[in-house]
């Protein structure tokens, strides 16, 4: 049996019309989509790895992953207590506000920070096993989603305690001059599509940042450097009506650009508003929708051009 | 049908953290691929102009000295590296067995490691659960499988890894050398499993320095030299050219018996099928 045959290398290669069939190029949209499809299909692998990461982080500790919940509860309670007093807000409404803000913030910043390391930290795997890149991205997003769900326990407890205050139509977050909120009602269900949007965006962010960071190792550093700045600029421990109440005649004026130009704010707001019965504004959804479309398009192009380079770069 | 086609493929590694100047001095070094210096980032041309095709039933041995590109070629064939120039197509599920330690997690139990390794090799959780007992028996690790991997000795780790990789049903099996480091009694057992695994697989590419294993597992061979294919052909031809002597002359009596040949076998028999 003739085992190894040399392909027709003496024939001049004519574009498009090589008799033995042109081999697919590495840089094609088809390969990029194949990677995504195969990655999603390997659900058992990435879900197992994501869960493994969580167990790993808390191994040999008695409470295990429950520490995620506990640390979130402590942080949210302490910050809620402090800032509600600083801003003269009712703790019954301000504590839930801060809690949901923090929980979501952890997911969002996780996509940025852990996303930029998604491929770097899987270097060994990428160099030894041919798996779609999407598997590592999904592993990261899945891990963050598990953390998010653990943190939701804190939300559930707080909701149980402060439900009467939150369900009250017309409640305000701050006592003086706060925007009247509609209160918790059936529109809270919007939190589910919102979380879907967050996860969908998380995936492209992880893919895009992951690929960029393998080539430019400064990217994770940049993200680490700006993450605390981003935290304070985003309305998490403060709320936009505090800013507006300081300038009652203009309703904040130019100061609203401080948060309106911050994409994190919009991602945060689509899920926080329904969860605590705040005013839900459609413009957040437009911004998020825009980011989803542009982000995925950009990611697909980057995947097409640089997906195959990642194993060389890590 | 499984197949791998590689045409005029180059694998160029960019070396980002090396100073161009200092690398330039090493360009003349004999070991390793050619180092190109045209661009700002120094590039190592690990593989140059590789054209080969592997079909169902092929058993290909890879030979060449250290740094000749054997491991890189295996990674190219597995799809881990896609050619920087040229093209490649892989049809079928590839099971690469390059480094037995890869994908092993020190902190989780042997059982868990079996699971993860299996999932990485494209098995499902259910398929792996069926194989766990078989692997446990083969590795002779017994209750140790419940222990975290960090309690294992090096040999035990190799047993575990070998147990997993030899339990799968690969379509295309890519084996790198270095499947050693186990005691010889176990190696005999492992060898049989390895041979079974190769028989099950649709196609095999095996990089090794051990003539006996090559003769046992492969029928044809590729000789890599400084990143390009120096010779392709039947295993005996290539090995003779590579070693400068007929490999059948120097194999041990025991190995010869296993291969079912006499050391005076004429060229053309004993290794074709």
TrEMBL record, chain B:
Keywords in alphabetical order: ATP-binding, Nucleotide-binding, Transport
Gene3D superfamilies in the record: P-loop containing nucleotide triphosphate hydrolases
Molecular function (GO) terms listed? Answer: ABC-type transporter activity; ATP binding; ATP hydrolysis activity
Q: Which domain of life is it from?
A: Bacteria
Its GO CC terms?
membrane
Native source organism of the sequence: Haloechinothrix aidingensis
**Positions of the ABC transporter domain:** 23-251
> What family does the Swiss-Prot or TrEMBL record give for this protein?
Belongs to the ABC transporter superfamily.
Put simply, this protein is called: ABC transporter ATP-binding protein
- InterPro entries for the chain: AAA+_ATPase (IPR003593), ABC_transporter-like_ATP-bd (IPR003439), ABC_transpr_TagH-like (IPR015860), Bact_Polysacc_Export_ATP-bd (IPR050683), P-loop_NTPase (IPR027417)
Entry's CDD domains? ABC_KpsT_Wzt
